[in-house]
Amino acid sequence: MAGTGVFAEIIDEEVFKYYSEGEWMKSSSGKSVAIINPTTRKTQYKVQACTKEEVNKVMGNAKGAQKEWAKTPLWKRAELLHKAAAILKEHKDPIAECLVKEIAKPAKDAISEVVRSGDLVSYCAEEGVRILGEGKFLTADSFPGHERNKYCLVSKIPLGVVLAIPPFNYPVNLAVSKIAPALIAGNSLVLKPPTQGAVACLHMVHCFHLAGFPKGLIGCITGKGSEIGDFLTMHPGVKCISFTGGDTGIAISKKAGMIPLQMELGGKDACIVLEDADLDQVAPNIVKGGFSYSGQRCTAVKVVLVMDCIADALVEKMKASIAKLTVGPPEDDCDITPVVTESSANYIEELVVDARKKGATFCQEYRRESNLIWPLLLDNVRPDMRIAWEEPFGPVLPVIRINSVEEGIHHCNASNFGLQGCVFTKDIDKAILISDAMETGTVQINSAPARGPDHFPFQGLRDSGIGSQGITNSINMMTKVKSTVINLPTPSYTMG
User: Active-site positions?
Assistant: First the structure.
């Protein structure tokens, strides 16, 4: 059970503690925040509602600990990260249990997320040693008009305190994707978990605690974003923000000031299917891409743009794949589980109702029980329907029939999002040309959009974010360049 065994110290009287100064603490506010189980719609866990004073203390500790941590040899930082990764994997079951109960993630996917997170931390440790162990040596005479009288040594140094804010859908994986690069680069880390997913994050932080990182280096603040969110993101102690989530990120970017920002804010990932595509490959690929974890993924297929001449055939094959999906509680490893909150389910329903009013073809009967929405394919969707542009973040997938590749590219590029896209075709030349024309951070050829492997670059355009993620890019983003220039005296003798 969560909060028992090795994790017993992170909970007190049914309220999970926050993490500061290397210890698990109760907030002086005396208040807690309830975490609602999406399946039962009852309170599953409670976490501390931290105060601004506690935020200040965590920030101060992180700033102080970072100065010493930056002096720690790179191999020692990597060693601790490897240790944390091993502990994380060792305790995958109780952490996965939290994911099942907090965010209704299917049990097998919850285990996979924790294991993947451990792998990410280990890879990050190795990659950090490679990247940060190298520098540059420049000579002045490589630029016109200069003699060889200056040497420049270029290295990467840490930024300071990194604020990490992961989303509910992958709270552990997207937390460690920020934590590990920050720590290997010599930064300290303050984590603000999402409400749904906070307890899984606290268990994950405890794995780093057990690994023996210095006190104060890692802090984890829980509470309502409405009360401490702005205070955290605008805190003068923060030198970098890595955020994954929704529209909140745009507001953060406007307030954060002159610090590096790494933001991934959602997508309306378009899938373009050409006439020559292998529909037996395409249909299950799109269904998995669109409905995995009930469509609650920024990289889920959000709109299918299919050539009209093959649309009937593709829709029939997709309907057959959808019919095989299991629907029910996450404990039963169902493919479709309840969406995270009632308000999310209500929003998805709004989009469905709008599509019905405007004449979309329902390939299945719309069915909802509480937060559980059955998978729904909407055919003959037109651009005047909200579902054509808005991100449902649920198990509803629109199909738009197109008459040309250009029409599909235009729809993709007209979106305010630009995270990922994909194209299915046997013609690699066409695929590359379409990829070049699609204004998205990543284009997948003959596969649905996906984040990962975790060392691949991951970024979006427009409202999908700024900066680039992926292990290597994150390490580079969480450092700054330092130059040391050696000025040599003019020799008073002739070399020869």
Answer: 264
